[in-house]
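In the laboratory, one determines a bound structure by crystallizing the protein with its ligand and collecting diffraction data. In a computational setting the workflow is compressed into a single prediction: the sequence and the ligand go in, and a structural description comes out. We illustrate the idea with adenosine-5'-diphosphate.
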Amino acid sequence: MNPDLPKINADPGRLEQVFINLLINARDAIEERWGIAEAGPGEKRILLATQVAEQVVSCEICDTGTGIPANLIEKVFEPFFTTKQAGKGTGLGLSISYGIVKDCRGSIKVKPHASGGACFILEFPVLEKTHGKKDPIGR
Ligand SMILES: Nc1ncnc2c1ncn2[C@@H]1O[C@H](COP(=O)(O)OP(=O)(O)O)[C@@H](O)[C@H]1O
Ligand SMILES: [Mg+2]
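The predicted complex, in structure-token form:
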């Protein structure tokens, strides 16, 4: 992880919800693929990476879980879309996350990971310097 990332414009509490949901989804997908028993080396992994380039901070959360079939990849951000059993998933996590990230003028995308799992990529514009004043939308 890069400890020197520039600031972005976001509500920390809401962003925390986004990351918690992504991490729980990754955990669920890993458990579904590998079970709850101890796995071999590298089998159960959640990988986090951050970087900044061209005034955009990006963060990848990748996992070695089940992955998302190509025909469902468009659907995962829809409200109430879930493949989890009743009582386990509401299907709201990613749709709420999508809204939160949009509110920060960011984006969230998903692509397959080489392990067969999934990779969620978040991108946020770097907060522009406002010469000591509050930023233009007052946060
Ligand atoms: N990391 C992941 N790996 C595999 N499938 C995922 C992953 N994250 C999300 N999904 C799929 O997207 C669906 C929707 O996720 P989400 O909106 O968080 O709702 P929920 O977790 O309640 O099912 C999940 O049910 C699952 O099918
Ligand atoms: Mg979820």
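The mean pLDDT is 92. Keep in mind that any predicted model is a hypothesis to be tested, not a measurement.
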